From TrEMBL:
The modification N6-(pyridoxal phosphate)lysine is found at residue 272. GO terms for cellular component: cytoplasm. It is found in: Cytoplasm. This is Glutamate-1-semialdehyde 2,1-aminomutase. The gene is hemL. Homodimer.
């Protein structure tokens, strides 16, 4: 059912109206398709691994609302749990047992987490963890990596990958120099650069934060020894190691990258999957560090809707579904078939390409690679990616509208979906 002439009249009308109402017509920049060209499609509904747009076109979805939909969209058990929770009210602003349940699940799953605080987004989690890093160490500088995204807080908008890179902005107007002057950056996978920063800033660096597998500069994996090396260097300098697992948490393994690679950071940020499609973020880690958070300790951080019963419910049910036997084997198997298939097709059709996958996260760059960091990722042929993206979209496959985003699979993708995606990719790459 390959459809090359999709009708998108309603999408165009709605998006045109949206542009008068909201900056760029969207609530988050990358959704506007700026880096791939053409108009975004406007969604009507989502179910399992599929999206339907307002003109009635159906797509196989590899964005999964940017990560949360790992069990498939609108999973019947998540929806049923939400219906039940809804009857009890939408927000408490007070303790609920649901928070205990999700907290225990997160603590059991993620090696570094002994205590957790729930917030409403990944951005919030990263902002809060930064304050905590600084408070615990009594130091102000931090190291982040070029191309890693940790939400849109001022202190992190330096070489921040994804949306920022997509728009070609070095960082953002409105971010004062004073907010970023303590943010040091190094190329991803470069331990020597990290060592040099520690040497140049003795006893001043609170810690190192990173995406343990990068998803915001395209899909980039850590070289052998990189995560271990960071663990050693931070320990040696009395600094903290923070894994931003907003994207990788519960996605590349149930216990995230730290389980997958066997490296335990001091603190971890989470988001996306733990909210099962509702707004949740979290940060957690060693008990001695987390005990500094108010009201247990002096580091202030709060939230009206934090620990919201609907969000907790969706998170709990999503994690329960992920605990069922075979889930990560299935995710790995279909994603490997997809990632390998895309590379084989690129090779067969004469396009230099590289990429790969870990569990339910994958990527493809239009450069022969290898891609170890953001500078390497930028060698990808963006114009070609734009044409590839449009060709796939027009034939019913929805990929992230940026070369600098990882792709996501989910439990609802069938073998037939993967086969169809590869058949479409072959057709598109043959005509690029
Ligand atoms: C690694 C990482 N950290 C933080 C964030 C920010 O999360 P949110 O968009 O929920 O604020 C994202 C979002 O994509 C992310 O991928």
């Amino acid at each position: 059912m390959v459809n090359t002439t999709i009708k998108t009249t309603k999408s165009q009308e709605i998006f045109a109206a949206a542009q008068n109402l909201m900056p760029g017509g969207v609530s988050s920049p990358v959704r506007a398709f700026k880096s791939v060209g053409g108009q975004p499609i406007v969604f009507d509904r989502v179910k399992d691994a599929y999206i339907w747009d307002v003109d009635g076109n159906q797509y196989i979805d590899y964005v999964g609302t940017w990560g949360p939909a790992i069990c498939g969209h609108a999973h019947p058990e998540v929806i049923a749990a939400l219906h039940e929770a809804l009857e009890k009210g939408t927000s408490f602003g007070a303790p609920s047992v649901l928070e205990n349940v999700l907290a225990e699940m997160v603590i059991d799953a993620v090696p570094s987490i002994e205590m957790v605080r729930f917030v409403n987004s990944g951005t919030e989690a990263c902002m809060a963890v930064l304050r905590l890093m600084r408070a615990f160490t009594n130091r102000e500088k931090i190291i982040k990596f070029e191309g890693c995204y940790h939400g849109h807080a001022d202190m992190f908008l330096v070489k921040a990958g994804s949306g920022v890179a997509t728009l070609g902005l070095p960082d953002s107007p409105g971010v004062p120099k004073s907010a970023t002057m303590n943010t040091l950056t190094a190329p991803y996978n470069d331990l020597e650069a990290v060592k040099a920063l520690f040497a140049e800033n003795p006893n001043q660096i609170a810690g190192v934060i990173l995406e343990p597998v990068v998803g915001n500069a395209g899909f980039i994996t850590p070289d052998a020894g990189f995560l271990e090396g960071l663990r050693e260097i931070t320990r040696e300098h009395g600094a903290l190691l923070v894994f931003d697992e907003v994207m990788t948490g519960f996605r590349i393994a149930y216990g995230g990258a730290q389980e997958k690679f066997g490296v335990t950071p001091d603190l971890t940020t989470l988001g996306k999957v733990i909210g099962g499609g509702l707004p949740v973020g979290a940060y957690g880690g060693r008990r001695d560090i987390m005990s500094m958070i108010a009201p247990a300790g002096p580091v202030y951080q709060a939230g009206t809707l934090s620990g919201n019963p609907l969000a907790m419910t969706a998170g709990i049910k999503t994690l329960e579904l992920l605990q069922r036997p075979g889930t990560y084997d299935y995710l790995d198997q279909i994603t490997q078939k997809l990632a390998d298939g895309l590379l084989e097709i690129a090779q067969a059709t004469g396009h230099p390409a590289c990429g790969g996958h870990i569990s339910a996260m994958f990527g493809l760059f239009f450069t022969s690679g290898p891609v170890h960091n953001y500078e390497d990722a930028k060698k990808s042929d963006m114009a070609k990616f734009g044409r590839f993206h449009r060709g796939m979209l027009e034939r019913g496959v929805y990929l992230a509208p940026s070369q600098f985003e990882a792709g996501f699979t989910c439990l609802a993708h069938t073998q037939a979906d993967i086969d169809q995606t590869l058949a479409v990719a072959k057709e598109v790459m043959s005509s690029l």
